Amino acid sequence: MLDRQPSTDEPPPEFDEELAATVSRLFWLEDRSKTDIAEEFGLSRFKVARLLDDARRYGIARIEVVEPTERLGRLAEQVRQEYDLDAVRLSPRPVTTAGGQAGLGAVAAAHLATVVGPGSSLGLGWGRALAEVVAHLAPTGPADVVQLAGGFASAEDEFNGTQLVVTASSVLGGDPYLLHAPALVSSAEARAVLRAEATVAHTVRRYRDLTATVTGIGALTETPGSALYRGGVLSRAVRDELRAREVVGDTCCHFIDAQGRVVEELAGRVTGISVEEIRRVPVRIAVAAGPEKLDAVRAALRSGLPTVLVTDSPTAAGLLRPR
Predict the structure, then answer these.
(1) I need a labelling partner for 306 at 20 to 30 A (CA). Which of 94, 219, 253, 278 fits?
(2) Contact criterion met (CB below 8 Å) for 170 and 144
(3) Are 169 and 135 in contact (CB under 8 A)?
């Protein structure tokens, strides 16, 4: 913060401090012109300008310039307190602008570098935001990387959790633990059978040893950016049920309603990390931003699943608005 300090000069006895304060308030806070103020008080425009100068000289009016980094820091702290998080990291570049997604990934990767070190075990989700995080990872390992969610039959490369895990483990110098299973199965019984398979169980066992997780937050909207809709994972009947339950988003295929409640009926069909396993991880980083994800991010924070949020400043500001 740049703050012009007032002079220690004492105003002369004839100086009208009350008038100077009133003129300063009208000019600086109410955006009134010097001409308007002069006409209202029967003063010359020169006199108004002199009063404004003297008000600053004698400490009646102060000019403060808040640097962008400080403004972001204040905004991040407000969000952290509002949602009882351990940390909030903000990208100064909105994701709706050129390079915004890359900037978000870079901020998340920088925070991850403070958490993941030699001997760590990182749980990794999937999605566009996570692809950018992996692209900016620093080699802070050796650290193993564990896939948190299964795959989709027709998902694009950026939603390929397996490839992200392989790439991240290469950067971090650790072993990749892959989940060769679909994201959702038909029943809780099918999930139990699949999780008992040797190749799947090998990865699932690592969930109890995770140092940190980093995941995206999906919005339950029929948009080009929705991995669940692209992958054809959800039937029309399931989508209709989720809307009826006021579901607004998901994290690692765990669906969350507007109040932050996880839909238990579908949670039992998720082959990847369970809600209980997520909550046992000490550091749980969520990376998401954008106007279409605001409701989903708010719901995810209400659920208590993330302990750290990485987002952009417009999304952070939206999280503080009443809903």
Answers:
(1) 94
(2) no
(3) no
User: Could you read off the pLDDT tens digit of each residue along the chain, which spans 323 residues?
Assistant: 434 444 556 888 889 999 999 999 999 888 899 999 999 999 999 999 999 999 998 889 887 665 578 889 999 999 999 999 999 999 988 999 888 999 999 999 999 999 999 999 999 998 889 999 999 999 999 999 999 998 765 555 556 789 999 999 999 999 999 999 988 888 889 999 999 999 999 999 999 999 999 999 988 876 655 655 555 556 677 778 788 888 899 998 899 999 999 988 788 889 999 999 999 999 999 999 999 999 999 999 999 999 999 999 999 999 999 87
The strand pair at 283-287 and 247-251 is best described as unpaired
ω before 13 within 30° of 0 (cis)?
Answer: no
Per DSSP (E only), the strands in the chain are 2-3, 64-65, 87-91, 121-124, 144-147, 176-177, 212-216, 218-219, 247-251, 254-257, 283-287, 308-312
**DSSP helix/strand/coil, 178:** coil
Q: Mark residue 260 as left, alpha or beta (left: phi above 0; alpha: psi -120 to 50; beta: remaining).
A: left
Q: Which domains does the chain have, with CATH numbers?
A: 2-65 (1.10.10.60), 71-320 (3.40.50.1360)
Distance CA 206, CA 125 (A): 14
Of the candidates 240, 250, 234, 229, the residue with the CA atom closest to the CA atom of residue 293: 250
Rounded to whole angstroms, the Cα distance separating 82 from 76 reads 10
The whole-model pTM stands at 0.77
